[in-house]
Write a structure and sequence with these properties.
three-stranded antiparallel sheet; elongated; 4 helices
């Protein structure tokens, strides 16, 4: 079962630009998708959480969940022992 979880975690999620339809590149460190053709940038859940916590480091998981409209189970997949981690660093 651990092997299946690893495979699911490492799958590549392809995102296409809403403006030009080209494939976007993902920067895992920042949690952001960028379109090289038209310059659009879109934060994923990790990127939105990172940005929110940089401005408000004392938020609880429940507050983050409410502010970002993200289920608590998803918040828990990003925060381990009080540290924000991207669960999909290989995208």
């Amino acid at each position: 079962m651990d092997e299946l979880a690893t495979l699911i975690r490492k799958r590549n999620i392809v995102r296409y630009c809403e403006k030009c339809g080209k494939r976007m590149t993902y920067t895992a460190v920042h949690g952001i998708y960028n379109c090289k053709d038209c310059g659009i940038s879109i934060l994923d859940t990790y990127g939105r959480m990172k940005e929110l916590l940089e401005d408000n480091p004392n938020l609880t998981k429940a507050q983050i969940s409410r502010m970002l409209h993200v289920p608590m189970r998803e918040i828990n997949s990003y925060i381990h022992d009080g540290i924000l981690e991207n669960p999909n660093p290989d995208q």
